[in-house]
Amino acid sequence: MLLWLLLLILTPRREQSGVAPKAVLLLDPPWSTAFKGEKVTLTCRISHSPARRDTFWYRDEKFWRTQHNAIQIRESGNYQCRTRGSSLSDAVHVEFSHDSLILQASHPVFEGDNVTLRCQGKENEKAREKVYYKDGKQLPNSYNLDFITVNSVSRDNSKYHCTATCTILSIVSIKRNSKPLNIQVQELFLHPVLRVSSSTPIEGSPMTLICETQLSPQRPEVQLQFSFFRDSQTLGSGWSTSPELQIPAMWTEDSGSYWCETETVTHNINKRSLTSQIRVQRVPVSNVNLEIQPTGGQLIEGENMVLICSIAQGSGTVTFSWHKEGRVRSLGRKTQRSLLAELHVLMVKESDAGRYYCAADNVHGPILSRWIQVTVRIPVSHPILTFRAPRVQALVGDLLELHCESLRGSPPILYRFYHEDVTLGNSSATSGGGASFNLSLTAEHSGNYSCDADNGLGAQHSHGVSLRVTVPVSRPILTLRAPGAQAVVGDVLELHCESLRGSFPILYWFYHEDDTLGKSSAHSGGGASFNLSLTTEHSGNYSCEADNGLGAQRSEVVTFSVTGTSRNRTGLTTAGVTGLVLSILSLAAAAAALLHYARAQRKPGGLSATGTSSHSPSECQEPSSSRPSRIDLQEPTHSKPLAPVELEPMYSNVNPEDSNLIYSHIWSIQHTKENSANCPTMHQEHKELTVLYSELKKKYPDDSAGEARSRSRAHEDDEENYENMPRVLLASDH
User: Fold this and answer.
1) 154 and 62 in one domain?
2) Pairing state of beta strands 92-97 and 33-35?
3) How many H helices and E strands in the chain?
4) Fewer CB near the last or first residue (10 Å), C or N of the chain?
5) 68, 178: one domain
6) Are 238 and 268 in contact (CB under 8 A)?
7) What's the total number of domains in the chain?
């Protein structure tokens, strides 16, 4: 029994060293103060899980009993618990009061928490007009409330109490005061402890600082942040969620007092560790090394070069210097407390090529690095593209030389040639002078040209150069556009001239019988036109010419004729002579009959001696679609009427040489299939078509004035008032 008690006493101390997790004690109901006679249940937990094994209970820091993880208590005291797998929990004071009015505080409460206070009277007394106080001062906004919340409490010794008016047996009212209450605020996290990797680090060596603490297992969600200090100077970047700080190198001036601080991210709880003294020891310089960037010492002219001199060991103030072979004075010198130093050489030139070294000294004598070779290459400059052609204006078929040249650059240089970003070809130059590319020009070679040069150090592109390949005009085509099929005086004739090929602008010339009519310029496709108001003199040959400065081309000749009378006068003349035509139809029919008779006498089976046809009266005319048909002038005696036939209009000149003849006409009858069906023998017997002629003679007045009228004047008037006219098909013709 004594051995068992000894184990119980020693075990908590061993487990409080941090090896085992701390047990947690909870209350149900969650109030640390209760009325005498009430019961409170205590539960022992590990983190958020109930203790599964036997639980050891302590009262007023003494072992009390062994029981399961939950027990009920009725007596005041400081209670603790633990299990075989945990350390001793924090003490919780539970008070059972005989008073009629008590102030209760929620449990558990941690630093920075908001705590709920409740002013409670006994069941047989009704408490009202409750007021809450802290350290004797009334809390604001706390009158006549059953509950009140105190924000962000801390582990201080503040005393809280409440007052209320209690009614006894619903008759007597007594004002009562509760006993002072010291809220049991538990630590949210332990005070931090600073751990260092070495209290006497060697100068130049790294060191690690660790700020150790432990968060309450009941509040694992709380986030902490850490900060490290040396002699009131903040180290690193300040506050960080990492409890570690890595110092790459420690120097003699880094010696001093160090500590760390831990706080919640809400900044309401902050705790500081004890200080630790650190002394840094100095080390001589050793293993000096020179490094060149870009790596390898291969530089391009215009780049920046960095000479990095470093030491493997050495502390304190180190002087670095840089040197180039062939130069007496150093390139540069820096004194600093560091394991390396840099010298920047801006915009290196070809003369910067050579061998370099550096030296380091911390009062023990300079230590030299090994030699490093540096080479400098020259990148190509922007190339210049030029054209070399046989003439100023490039023509289709010319041989064009594209010449690309970079005036600076380490050879070999590869030149590429482009037309509208399409690669034409490439050529390499192993020395100065650039490279060329030849091109036989076509019309498609107009556009923008460029080239680029590349010697492996970055390609450079030239400016674009425009080339316009001029195409000579092709032979133009002349087109005449009139309002109708037959052009007459007064019509507007459009002469359209177009070359299907040729560079713009194109100048078009229009000619009539080699006389220039006019000109028009075209700046795009479609040719050009020239309008002409027609007169009788405009009949003849027309042509046009196209020229864009590379040689003119002439079109083929187009013949054109103009009728003498305008369209308006033709209508008036037709209306005037229509009456005359009707009046002479009888005379025209008689003349045609005589002609038909004369022609029939010359043919076998033709007209008889009496002027009648050799066919029976029921026969009719045979139609013809290719030439004028003959017509029988004899009165039709067949029983069925002839089908209407369409006359093929024929034309004759108005007013021939005989000035006495003012009108003449020629027409024929075209046979239809119906006529041929009624006349089965016509096609065989009447192979020649009958042609009808009619004339109208001019009648002069009887007076001498009419006799004396000039024939030439009458001839001009006749030509002015008459024109060619088609014959009108009349009902009597059928």
Assistant:
1) yes
2) parallel
3) 7, 54
4) N
5) yes
6) no
7) 5
Residues 71 and 175 grouped into a single domain: yes
The last residue of a domain, from among 182, 214, 238: 182
The Cα–Cα gap between 317 and 51 comes to 61
Specify if 51 maps to a domain: yes
DSSP code at position 215: B
Closest by CA to 580, choosing from 419, 435, 405, 721, is 721
Instruction: State whether residue 432 is helix, strand or coil.
Output: coil
Q: DSSP labels for 56-108?
A: EEEETTEEEEEE-SEEEE-S-EEEEEE-TTSBPPPPEEEEEE-SSEEEEEBS-
Q: Is the dihedral of CA 47, 51, 54, 57 positive or negative?
A: positive
**CA angle, residues 73, 74, 79, in degrees to nearest 5:** 50
Residue 496 is part of a domain; what is its CATH number? 2.60.40.10
Residue 566 pLDDT: 62
- Give me the pLDDT at residue 588, please: 53
Grouped pLDDT means (10 residues each) for the chain, 734 residues? 41 46 89 92 80 83 87 93 86 91 90 90 83 92 88 86 85 87 89 92 88 88 93 91 91 90 89 93 89 90 94 87 93 91 93 94 89 91 92 86 92 94 92 90 91 92 91 92 87 93 91 92 90 90 92 92 68 44 49 49 37 35 35 35 38 42 47 42 41 45 40 40 39 35
What are 553's two structure tokens? Answer: 């081309």
Q: How far apart are CA 120 and CA 127, in angstroms?
A: 7
The full DSSP string for 169-203 is TTTEEEEEEPPPB---EEPSBPPPEEEES-SSPBT
CB-based burial label for 512 (10 Å; 0-12, 13-18, 19+): middle
482 neighbors 491 (Cβ within 8 angstroms): yes
Pairing of strands 55-59, 115-121: unpaired
Tokens of 668: 């024929």
Whether residue 500 contacts residue 527, with contact meaning beta carbons closer than 8 Å, is answered with no
Whether residues 204 and 173 share a domain: the answer is no
> How many CB atoms are located within 10 Å of the residue 706 CB?
11
Beta-strand pair 193-196/207-212: antiparallel
The token duo for 25 is: 């004690």
Q: Is 568 exposed, middle or buried (0-12, 13-18, 19+ CB in 10 A)?
A: exposed
- Asked if the structure places residue 438 within a domain, the reply is yes
pLDDT of 695 reads 46
452 and 531 co-located in one domain: no
> Which residues, 6+ apart, have CB-to-CB distance to 407 below 8 Å?
381, 384
Q: Which residue has the tokens 């059953």?
A: 146
The strand pair at 692-697 and 661-669 is best described as antiparallel
Strands, sheet with 528-533, edge to edge from the N-terminal-most edge strand: 477-481, 492-498, 528-533
Distances (CA, A) of 714 to 216, 538, 658, 696, 717: 140, 25, 11, 15, 5
- How big is the CA angle at 30 (ends 29 and 31), to the nearest 5 degrees? 95
Tokens coding 503? 């560079």
Evaluate whether residue 85 is within a structural domain: yes
Domain contains 301: yes
By the 8 A CB rule, do 611 and 634 touch? yes
> Looking at the structure, do residues 318 and 392 belong to the same domain, yes or no?
no
Indicate the residue among 323, 352, 377 that finishes a domain. 377
For residues 69-93, one letter each, b for 16 or more C-beta atoms within 10 angstroms of the residue's C-beta and e for the rest, the string is bbbebeebbebbbbbeebbbbbbbe
361 in Cβ contact with 327 (< 8 Å): no
Enclosing domain of residue 143? 23-182
> Which amino acid belongs to residue 44?
C
The span from the CA of 570 to the CA of 42, in Å, is: 133
The answer to whether 376 touches 301, Cβ cutoff 8 Å, is yes
